[in-house]
């Protein structure tokens, strides 16, 4: 087996955070002198050394990466059947990490094909062994390989790597775009991050960003090289955020709840809490793009942080160096400003606003539930992200009522469909609104629409499952959980609206969507249309309720049938 690996070298390809434009990890790719890595593994298989060769390749990747001295997480590849072998087969990988001084939590093992021929229980046991050792796990080839769908949830990987065979069809292939949306929904439920591989065109990159993918790699961003380009950036990928329409089409969860701090996460540059000032200085000198160093305890929890400029100012010059170089760096450090991974960007800015002004631009440390360091967030990135959110909100709101437009409701419906929730969608409008305008004038009509909008906004306050939007004209949309639907709808219809002393009535059509009963916002819209016509045919303020797959319609409010006006 060793002879098979003698001529193997490695190239390194960066993975980018599409929100910040920076490199967040590096993948090691085997480059044999002759043929491909697959050819090499096939030769090892014929020789009866497949698993040993696979592990040996991963170990070599770790050692080759150490020659370039970068602190970013390293991705290495292992076949799923290798991880399903006895744990002792993977021990050399941990020894290689120890030899080069790389922490296991700075390694991501990408599991690859074949999956279907790998015993599921043994694979899950191997994944648990890796995680117990501190190593993170990704599933490679998702979407175009033999990855069983149940494996996505059974493994609940740290990352899902979207195969280039899916990316190549974007943005024109509707089926692949739908698959991308579905996988993002899976990731939202499992806590995984979707990483797009093989990005080669600007159109693909734009489609991925619009869908809400926040990590990617590919030749468009940075090709694989013998020396990893960890300082690379992709500012061109961020320029699209200046287009409000493009921003408005991004992931539902991100835009409804606001960005999460993890959307702006950078890998932390860490050293043990006992590190000397000289060790910190050497790290900063070798990595000009690093804005600070986090000193962690033996369990990976942040103890201190060192901001680049303040630290270098303290140790620069003969006196500073002589005074501090061989002493613990913690003497010059600050206590970490830590935030939880569930923090929103807005909550993070609250921490910054009410903190020490001298540290307003310091990185914040993101920690998990065990207070272990997950990475750092740069304040400038978060400020930009919140600004984008405000631009999107301003662009999507109806100027008359200041309620979100139809796209916001569409994203909310799509999110609930993907999450398998039971919910209702309502279509509300003003009866005979054209007559109101013709009789009282368009200014009075605008006042009426504002009043309805205010009542909807007031009704939503304190309701966790209800969202409302203004489609345009006298048409409004609402999405609600069933527990809050009846109370909210009744409250709106009980409200009195009038113009020039004449009472105005409303019509509400609702569609109750059970899990799996609808597939998209477009389908919901189509099914609501006949319900709205029926509601409009009733006298007084009316309310009808229907369900997909049945012709039964419940009339909750409204008088005898009249001619449709």
Keywords, separated by commas or semicolons:
single chain, TIM Barrel, 23 helices, 41% helix, 23 strands, alpha/beta, six-stranded mixed β-sheet, 565 residues, CBS-domain, eight-stranded mixed β-barrel, Alpha-Beta Plaits, globular
Write the layout of secondary structure elements.
Blueprint: H1 2-5, E1 9-17, E2 23-31, H2 37-46, H3 50-66, E3 74-79, H4 80-83, H5 91-100, E4 107-112, H6 120-132, E5 136-142, H7 149-155, E6 159-162, H8 164-167, H9 174-190, E7 193-196, H10 202-211, E8 215-216, H11 235-238, H12 244-248, H13 252-257, E9 265-266, E10 270-272, H14 277-286, E11 292-296, E12 302-307, H15 308-315, H16 317-324, E13 338-340, H17 345-353, E14 364-367, E15 373-377, H18 379-396, H19 406-419, E16 423-430, H20 433-440, H21 442-460, E17 467-472, E18 475-480, H22 482-494, E19 497-499, E20 502-504, E21 506-513, H23 521-536, E22 542-546, E23 553-557
Parallel strand pairs: 2-3, 3-4, 4-5, 5-6, 6-7, 7-8, 10-11, 13-14, 21-22
Antiparallel strand pairs: 1-2, 1-8, 9-15, 11-12, 14-15, 16-18, 16-21, 17-18, 19-20, 22-23
Can you describe this structure?
With 565 residues, this protein is α/β, with parallel strands linked by helices. It folds into three domains: 2-227, TIM Barrel; 265-383, CBS-domain (Roll), CATH 3.10.580.10; 397-557, Reverse transcriptase/Diguanylate cyclase domain (Alpha-Beta Plaits, 2-Layer Sandwich). The protein contains 23 helices and 23 strands. The strands form five sheets. It has an eight-stranded mixed β-barrel. Strands 17-18-16-21-22-23 form a six-stranded mixed sheet, sandwiched between helices. β19 and β20 form a beta hairpin. α2 (37-46) runs antiparallel to α3 (50-66) and α3 runs parallel beside α5 (91-100). It is globular, with a radius of gyration of 28 Å.
């Amino acid at each position: 087996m060793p002879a098979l690996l003698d001529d193997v070298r490695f190239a390194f390809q960066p993975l980018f955070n599409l929100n910040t434009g920076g490199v967040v990890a590096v993948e090691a790719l085997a480059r044999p002198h002759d043929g491909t890595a697959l050819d090499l593994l096939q030769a090892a298989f014929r020789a009866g050394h497949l698993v040993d060769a696979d592990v040996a390749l991963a170990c070599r990747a770790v050692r080759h990466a150490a020659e370039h001295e970068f602190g970013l997480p390293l991705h290495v590849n292992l076949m799923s059947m290798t991880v399903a072998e006895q744990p002792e087969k993977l021990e050399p990988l941990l020894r290689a990490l120890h030899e080069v001084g790389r922490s296991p939590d700075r390694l991501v093992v990408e599991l690859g094909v074949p999956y279907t021929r790998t015993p599921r229980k043994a694979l899950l046991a191997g994944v648990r062994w890796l995680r117990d050792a501190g190593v993170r796990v990704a599933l490679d080839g998702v979407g175009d390989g033999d990855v069983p769908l149940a494996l996505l949830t059974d493994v609940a990987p740290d990352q899902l790597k979207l195969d280039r065979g899916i990316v190549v069809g974007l943005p024109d292939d509707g089926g692949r775009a739908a698959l991308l949306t579905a996988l993002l929904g899976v990731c939202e439920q499992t806590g995984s991050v979707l990483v797009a591989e093989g990005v080669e065109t600007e159109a693909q990159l734009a489609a991925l960003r619009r869908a809400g993918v926040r990590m990617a790699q590919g030749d468009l961003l940075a090709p694989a090289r013998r020396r990893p380009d960890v300082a690379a950036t992709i500012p061109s990928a961020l320029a699209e955020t200046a287009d409000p329409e493009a921003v408005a089409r991004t992931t539902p969860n991100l835009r409804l709840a606001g960005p999460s701090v993890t959307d702006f996460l950078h890998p932390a540059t860490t050293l043990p809490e006992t590190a000397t000032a000289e060790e910190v200085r050497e790290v900063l000198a070798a990595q000009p793009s690093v804005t600070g160093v986090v000193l962690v305890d033996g369990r990976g929890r942040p103890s201190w942080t060192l901001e680049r400029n303040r630290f270098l100012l303290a140790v620069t010059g003969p006196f500073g160096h002589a005074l501090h170089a061989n002493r613990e760096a913690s003497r010059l450090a600050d206590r970490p400003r830590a935030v939880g991974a569930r923090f929103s960007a807005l909550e993070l800015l609250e921490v910054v606003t009410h903190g020490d002004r001298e540290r307003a631009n310091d990185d914040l440390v993101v920690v998990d539930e065990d207070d272990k360091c997950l990475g750092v967030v740069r304040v400038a990135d978060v400020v930009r992200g919140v600004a984008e959110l405000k631009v999107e909100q301003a662009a999507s709101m109806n100027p008359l009522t200041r309620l979100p437009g139809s796209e916001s409701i569409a994203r909310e419906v799509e999110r609930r469909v993907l999450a398998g929730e039971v919910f209702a969608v309502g279509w509300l409008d003003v009866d005979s609104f054209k007559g109101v305008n013709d009789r009282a004038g368009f200014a009075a009509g605008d006042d009426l629409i504002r009043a309805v909008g205010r009542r909807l906004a007031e009704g939503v306050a304190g309701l966790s499952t209800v969202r409302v939007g203004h489609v345009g004209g006298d048409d409004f949309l609402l999405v609600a959980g069933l527990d809050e639907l009846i109370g909210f709808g009744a409250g709106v219809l009980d409200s009195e609206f009038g113009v020039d002393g004449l009472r105005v009535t409303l019509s509400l059509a609702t569609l109750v969507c059970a899990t799996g009963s609808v597939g998209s916002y477009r389908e919901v819209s189509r099914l609501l249309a006949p319900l709205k016509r029926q509601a409009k045919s009733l006298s007084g303020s009316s309310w009808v309720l229907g369900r997909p797959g049945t012709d039964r319609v419940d009339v909750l409010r409204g008088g005898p049938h009249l001619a449709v006006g």
